[in-house]
Automatic annotation (TrEMBL):
Quaternary data: EF-1 is composed of 4 subunits: alpha, beta (1B-alpha=beta'), delta (1B-beta), and gamma (1B-gamma).
Gene Ontology CC, one term: eukaryotic translation elongation factor 1 complex
Keyword Nucleotidyltransferase carried by entry: no
Matching InterPro entries: eEF-1beta-like_sf, EF1B_bsu/dsu, EF1B_bsu/dsu_GNE, Glutathione-S-Trfase_C_sf, Transl_elong_EF1B/ribsomal_bS6, Transl_elong_EF1B_B/D_CS
Molecular-function annotations in GO: guanyl-nucleotide exchange factor activity; translation elongation factor activity
Gene3D superfamilies: 1.20.1050.130, 3.30.70.60
Translation elongation factor EF1B beta/delta subunit guanine nucleotide exchange domain location: 129-218
SMART domains: EF1_GNE
Protein function: EF-1-beta and EF-1-delta stimulate the exchange of GDP bound to EF-1-alpha to GTP.
Pfam family, one: EF1_GNE
Record keywords, A-Z: Elongation factor, Protein biosynthesis
Source species of the chain: Hibiscus syriacus
Record-given protein name: Elongation factor 1-beta
Entry similarity comment: Belongs to the EF-1-beta/EF-1-delta family.
Length: 218
C-alpha cells in the first residue's frame, strides 16, 4: 500500500516520518528500495536525536548509497516538495523529473535557516550547569566580613545562583569567605564574574582577591 509524506523539510513532516519508521528499518519491506531513495532525497539532512527513528534510517540509507556510488559527490539540490509514492510505475516516471543540479530554491534556503535556528535554540535549552567553590579574600583582619559577603551576593546576573557560605581562618586573625555558586555555562563566565564584578569598584573596598577552589560540571 502506498504511503504519502509531505513537507519533510519541516518539523511536522519529520515527525510524521519518525512515527512511521517506529519499529521499521526501511520505508517498504525489510530491504533498501526505491521508496527509501525517494524519501531520502526529500529529507534535506540528518535531523539527529530530535527524530531518532529518522536519523537511524537516514544513516542506514546513506551508508548503503555510499558503497553503491564510490565517486566523489559534488552536492545536489531539489526544487519544490517531495511527491507522494502512488505506484511503482509512477515512481519510475517521477525519477525522470528530479533536477539533480538545480539551484537552491528560496524555500530550501528558508528551511535551512529554520533548521539552524532550531538547532541553536535546542542547544541553548540543553546548556549545562556547573557548581563552583570560590575563595574570597579580604584586605586584612579589619575588613568587615559581613559587608564583604553582602558585596559578593549583591552581584546578580542571568544564570548565576549563590549558595551556602562559611568563613575559614587563614592566619594572623584574617578569615576568608568560601562560597558556593551554581552557573549556567553559556550565560556566566567565572573569570568575568571575578574580574569585572567582584574585584572592581565598589566591591573591591572589601574584596582583595578571589580564587576558584573547585569547578564541577553538574
Amino acid at each position: 500500500m502506498a504511503v504519502t509524506f509531505s513537507n519533510l523539510h519541516t518539523e511536522s513532516g519529520l515527525k510524521s516520518l519518525n512515527d512511521f519508521l517506529s519499529g521499521k528499518s526501511y520505508i517498504s519491506g525489510n530491504k533498501l528500495s526505491k521508496d527509501d531513495i525517494k524519501v531520502y532525497a526529500a529529507v534535506l539532512n540528518n535531523p539527529g536525536d530530535a527524530f531518532l527513528n529518522v536519523s537511524k534510517w537516514y544513516n542506514s540509507v546513506s551508508s548503503q548509497l555510499a558503497t553503491s556510488f564510490p565517486g566523489k559527490a559534488a552536492g545536489v539540490g531539489f526544487g519544490g516538495k517531495a511527491a507522494p509514492a502512488e505506484s511503482a510505475k509512477d515512481e519510475a516516471a517521477d525519477d525522470d523529473d528530479l533536477d539533480l543540479f538545480g539551484d537552491e530554491t528560496e524555500e530550501e534556503k528558508k528551511a535551512a535557516e529554520e533548521r539552524e535556528a532550531s538547532k541553536k535554540s535546542a542547544k541553548k535549552k540543553e546548556s549545562g550547569k556547573s557548581s563552583v567553590l570560590l575563595d574570597v579574600k579580604p584586605w586584612d583582619d579589619e575588613t568587615d566580613m559581613k559587608k564583604l559577603e553582602e558585596a559578593v551576593r549583591s552581584v546578580e546576573m542571568p544564570g548565576l545562583l549563590w549558595g551556602a557560605s562559611k568563613l575559614v581562618a587563614v592566619g594572623y586573625g584574617i578569615k576568608k569567605l568560601q562560597i558556593m555558586l551554581t552557573i549556567v555555562d553559556d550565560l556566566v563566565s567565572v573569570d568575568t564574574l571575578i574580574e569585572e564584578h567582584l574585584t572592581v569598584e565598589p566591591r573591591n573596598e572589601h574584596i582583595q582577591s578571589c580564587d576558584i577552589v573547585a569547578f564541577n560540571k553538574i
